[in-house]
Amino acid sequence: MTDVPKLLVVMGVSGSGKTTLARQLADQLDFAFMEADEFHSDEARQKMARAEPLDDEMREPWLNSMCQHLTRHQQSTVLAYSGLRRRHRQRFRELGYDTGFIWLHGQFDDIRRRLDNRQGHYMPASLLTSQFRDLEMPKGETDILMLDIHCNPKQLLTRATAAVSLLYRSA
Asked: Which InterPro entries has this protein been placed in (predicted)?
């Protein structure tokens, strides 16, 4: 009998550090790494670059593309993904993976400073307000562990590794 592949979703608003942490965890766990931003359509990227937030209609093809990729590949994966909507998180739970989430949580002003200093990303810092507005807090979702981003990257990785152990018990 083969093990069910694991899906670890590192979620949070833009600028929370999810890509950096997800890459580190993928390396540490020997999982595939998946960046949700790579699955956006050109149209969605252009819209965000114009500082226009995506609505659920624009998010749907993005979600479909990520879910199709995961369904095709069926390998343990760490996904860097905003995870703003509860129903969108639920779609990942239904893919047949052993799924867990790490939510990188921080204060608006701290994340805004990070975004103001970020170079070369299509999403402007001005969209952070819409991301905080759209974030549905993970109440009652027992497979989501929150990590406060207000620590140095090494501490965050240590805390995330401990969270993974809690989520999967054997990772």
From this structure: P-loop_NTPase, Therm_gnt_kin
The DSSP secondary structure of 11-33, one letter per residue, reads E-STTSSHHHHHHHHHHHHT-EE
The angle at the Cα of 7, spanning 133 to 46, to the nearest 5 degrees, equals 45
Domains in the chain: boundaries = 6-168
Q: Are 97 and 89 in contact (CB under 8 A)?
A: no
Return the half-sphere exposure (C-beta side, CA atoms, 13 A cut-off) of residue 147: 27
pLDDT tens digits along 128-143: 888 898 899 989 999 9
Please tell me the distance from the alpha carbon of residue 46 to that of residue 65, in angstroms, as a whole number.
Answer: 18
CATH class of segment(s) 6-168? alpha beta
Residue 149 is classified by DSSP as: -
96 vs 74: CA distance, rounded Å: 9
Q: Is 0.85 surpassed by the pTM of this model?
A: yes
CB atoms within 10 A of CB 137: 11
Q: How many CA atoms lie within 13 A of 108 on its CB side?
A: 9
Polymer length of the chain: 171
Sign of the torsion angle spanned by Cα atoms 152, 103, 166, 164: negative
